[in-house]
């Protein structure tokens, strides 16, 4: 039995995959120490892990970031993204390092890829270390444009030259903005500098990277290191194939997509309507960017007169915040994706990676409207893969959403491709394969 630290940022979309992997490692007989915020301690305790709290690191509630970090405001736009990086990703990292190292020793570390403190502590302790990618891979590649520039890979000589120039320009910016911060944290524990100008490559393990998804959802990159393994979706249970609702499943992980992080919930009274509906459209903004005016309300308005049943989740907020619902709409604070998605024909999402993976694993094509953090990257990958449509905005007009939904309904190729990718994700092994790969590090 090994003592394994699992470090997760206290965001619902991060706790979901890390919590599922922690449960798998406990099942395999290991002592798992879960390092995360107080809000999510129950998820890991319920999985059989012990909890290491954020003490030196500033803890926070992901449903109200501005309460702890006022600079973040509503989290939208360039200012919100910059404040998120400054105050959460980098700002909590030194405390994370202190907390993790104070509770050592460990035989192995498993870290969320944006838990910078976990990555640095793992290297400082000199034990095997695995990274779980909770977003699309941000690792730099000489075959891709820089991550975050909202560009798909070029195909011709001129485009490849463009990408090379952009990589050079962003490398200079990374040295100033990212490298200086990472190197300052590393120097505090006696580590040398990261390889310059490579964004966040220095916080990915070179022992093992568990990448969620499958190659068909990620741009081709011939220079991908051999320690990167695509494992499909890290979730507590596979998507259910049944089309009939089961009252026995009224309790279980409560949440829509990445919000499925523990607790119990009863299925709503309208749940049986799902089986009777000709077409079900599910719209969700996850648990972080939850202003319904961005996507939920435009979807409700755009589909109000269509022959579909629209099911929306608010990510925890009172559904009353949505105002009056059209006759063809139903709402809940949370719904379990693994129970809901077998009834869904189209999912409308703001691009949370966990929810997108759940949708594709269930063979459900997507309409994605992503604007913040990694969500535009997710939207582009969905469109590039053929599994959905990228609306190229986080605040689409109702007609725009309706047209995209109708296009997916009319063109079977989207569902065919989502089904193909979903089968590949299931075949990739999920938490079972991830657990095997983590254990393989202990044998080295």
TrEMBL record:
Q: Tell me yes or no: is Transferase among this UniProt entry's keywords.
A: yes
Q: Print the keywords alphabetically.
A: Transferase
Q: Which SUPFAM superfamilies match?
A: UDP-Glycosyltransferase/glycogen phosphorylase
The organism's place on the tree of life at top rank: Bacteria
Instruction: Give an example GO molecular function.
Output: hexosyltransferase activity
Where is the region Disordered? 238-265
Recorded protein name is Glycosyl transferase
